[in-house]
Amino acid sequence: MTDKAASTQTDGRILRGEATRERVLDAAERLFAAQGFDATSIRRIAAEAGVTLGVVGFHGGAKQDLIRTVLERRVEALNSKRRARLAELRAAGSPPALRDLVDAYLTPYLEYASQGDPQWRAYARLIARIVSDDRWYPAVGGLYDPVAREYLHAMQQARPDAAQQELATALTLTVASMLSLVASRARIAGLSGRDAGSPMDYRDTLITFCLGGIDAVSRAP
Amino acid sequence: MTDKAASTQTDGRILRGEATRERVLDAAERLFAAQGFDATSIRRIAAEAGVTLGVVGFHGGAKQDLIRTVLERRVEALNSKRRARLAELRAAGSPPALRDLVDAYLTPYLEYASQGDPQWRAYARLIARIVSDDRWYPAVGGLYDPVAREYLHAMQQARPDAAQQELATALTLTVASMLSLVASRARIAGLSGRDAGSPMDYRDTLITFCLGGIDAVSRAP
DNA sequence: GTCTATATGTAGATAGAC
DNA sequence: GTCTATCTACATATAGAC
């Protein structure tokens, strides 16, 4: 959003400013993910990043700009991974199977959410928080929806006889199930009686569940 | 939680105090549901209820007590409706069918969420917000989990060969799908391209989807 | 780019009059 | 039961020195 920092750089070298900026965004990402937007103060972000209050304002702008910057920083990573997997499936010839489509959409996100790097885990958690909240969706849904729509079209080609609205709904329920593995770990652990492992541990079950659901919906009268 | 108000009543008559208390809890319910806990100030609740700041404190106690009181006020309505439907299915003889179990668990919630009374809609929305958030689940999960576990046991009887952990996970994904119809209306509308109707409009699709998912999971090797 | 300092508003909570 | 008044803390945001 604001690139005051970068605009002072005339050559390609990255100075300490870049590193500080990353630390600020990292801290914001972790705290927004863990506690939500409203419960996270800029002061706390500054403390977590080891900078002063003014520095956060300088790099992040207003609080709402800050969270957008945090999300946008990594949005292309997830989108391009999903696009690449879809392209692979298409390159393999003939319309991709439904199961492969579901796998290709869900797995990259689960991988981020289960990755060793806590920063990527925080990003995945933040997405789950923000995208499923009606208050935030208008501001950020546009970041991820285009790719989801590409998958929806591919699914419609795989199930040409299914009602399009039903298929679209099935995809939104699939996404909700996926996000819940990251956002609702405590609920899942509490109900299933075991400590929740990493989201990737649920991958097979998730894919089976969602595929079964989509299949059932696309066969319904 | 705090029943200072009621404790001053020695006979059965309900004075203005009860009505005021309800107005406070109603306002809190609406605002917590619409904006979340952290974004909602007690002052705003007071304004919405048409009372002064001190009155909210008197009836609701500290902010965290207030939201618990709001949730507990109606928890029995949902729980007993689900229990009643489960009892009906059992009374009908022989283990209930999986589809009936899914229907019986999902439908009462969707009905509340789609009801004319905006107060019940707010309650449903608040549940969706709070139960899927890891930060809140420890404080409120215990309100709804016992009934969910009864359904889980019934599901295990309907699918005795399924792995228990898989079935439990399938139920948590079912719940997540259900909650998303209430909490993530904007996402659903955005992705499916139509204005989201009421959650009940999605009931058939939701049941088909979840049943297909549970079925697939409980057949998996 | 980063700091300190501060302007300005709002938060939760409660004490005490009525 | 309800209101007014206020305490104390913390919030966001920015101006200006370095």
TrEMBL record, chains A, B:
<dbReference type="InterPro" id="IPR050109">
    <property type="entry name" value="HTH-type_TetR-like_transc_reg"/>
</dbReference>
<dbReference type="Pfam" id="PF17939">
    <property type="entry name" value="TetR_C_30"/>
</dbReference>
<dbReference type="InterPro" id="IPR001647">
    <property type="entry name" value="HTH_TetR"/>
</dbReference>
<dbReference type="InterPro" id="IPR036271">
    <property type="entry name" value="Tet_transcr_reg_TetR-rel_C_sf"/>
</dbReference>
<feature type="DNA-binding region" description="H-T-H motif">
    <location>
        <begin position="41"/>
        <end position="60"/>
    </location>
</feature>
<dbReference type="GO" id="GO:0000976">
    <property type="term" value="F:transcription cis-regulatory region binding"/>
</dbReference>
<feature type="domain" description="HTH tetR-type">
    <location>
        <begin position="18"/>
        <end position="78"/>
    </location>
</feature>
<dbReference type="GO" id="GO:0003700">
    <property type="term" value="F:DNA-binding transcription factor activity"/>
</dbReference>
<protein>
    <submittedName>
        <fullName>Transcriptional regulator, TetR family</fullName>
    </submittedName>
</protein>
<dbReference type="InterPro" id="IPR009057">
    <property type="entry name" value="Homeodomain-like_sf"/>
</dbReference>
<dbReference type="Pfam" id="PF00440">
    <property type="entry name" value="TetR_N"/>
</dbReference>
<keyword id="KW-0238">DNA-binding</keyword>
<dbReference type="InterPro" id="IPR041586">
    <property type="entry name" value="PsrA_TetR_C"/>
</dbReference>
